[in-house]
Design brief:
Helix 3 links the parallel strand 1 and strand 2. The chain has a 6-stranded mixed beta sheet. The protein has 267 residues and is of the alpha/beta class. The longest helix is centred in the first third of the chain and has 34 residues. Helix 3 crosses helix 11 and helix 7 packs across helix 9.
């Protein structure tokens, strides 16, 4: 049996097996590739841009699972005009090449995971726009900034009243970083009376992010804005099937431009 045939057979066996089985398979076959790719991506992000054009980023955004052939160009040009950015001096990137689906651990998902980790590690990434499932996955990994740290209480309340705020439960995040969750990943056993354990177990089986109402959360943290009526994204055809969510990366160094980008997308 060839290597490719063996991989195809392994993938068939993994169907419906949950996150741990997929992760074990991925790490066995791709760990060397992942480590090498991370190093290469970090090198490219941090050095190649400066060597080629010597222009610092005004904004680096990723639009994960976005559609539309001209989405990237339209958003980059539109944001530059909206924010008054001179693109001869500063670069704007709205990366629409990223695809992500844990239910299908394909090359695109692996590449997106690697790229996102690399650009965050190099402090280049400012904003992520994604479908609910993908945005929620990264929200549970504490990828995004608490919006209360950058917006006023009145602004948050106004968006919340319109149903535009995406919350993540800090209790769920705390469970995912606990030794109890690590034990579950090892032995597959979890406390069925613990709502977070149940949520995590279900997610690891279905790969569908467990969206909760704010009222059901122990400690709701606002991390995203739901772009229900974004004319910008509608005109691009970027997310035709659902309202995407936008969040500011937790370690961005360009907070003012990130906020302008959110305001641009909320038009």
């Amino acid at each position: 049996m060839s290597v490719n045939e063996e991989i195809r057979e392994q993938r068939k066996k993994l169907k419906g097996q949950g996150f741990k089985a997929h992760w074990d398979y991925f790490w066995e076959y791709y760990k060397i590739h992942t480590i090498v790719a991370l190093i290469v991506i970090i090198f490219i992000v941090t050095f190649t841009r400066d060597m080629l054009n010597n222009k610092p980023y005004a904004l680096y955004s990723m639009l994960i699972n976005a559609a539309g052939l001209e989405t990237q160009e339209k958003i980059q040009n539109g944001y530059a005009e909206y924010a008054g950015i001179d693109t001869t001096k500063e670069a704007i990137l709205a990366d629409t090449s990223a695809g992500f689906s844990l239910a299908n651990m394909d090359n695109s998902t692996v590449a997106t995971s690697e790229k996102l980790m690399a650009v965050m590690a190099s402090n280049e990434l400012d904003v992520v726009v994604a479908d609910t499932n993908t945005f929620g996955h990264y929200a549970s990994l504490e990828t995004y900034m608490d919006l209360r740290d950058v917006y006023s209480a009145d602004e948050i309340a106004s968006w919340d009243s319109q149903g535009l705020i995406f919350y993540v439960d800090q209790g769920y995040i705390d469970y995912l970083t606990s030794s109890t969750y690590t034990d579950y990943l090892t032995n597959g056993q979890y406390d069925k009376s613990n709502k977070y354990a149940v949520m995590a177990a279900k997610y690891n089986e279905t790969f569908e992010y467990p969206v909760q109402d704010k009222s059901e959360m122990d400690n709701p943290v606002p991390v995203g804005i739901i772009l229900k009526n974004s004319k910008i994204l509608t005109d691009c055809g970027a997310y035709p099937n659902e309202a995407p969510i936008v969040g500011i990366i937790i370690n961005t160094e360009r907070i003012d431009n990130a906020k302008k980008f959110l305001a641009y997308l909320m038009q």
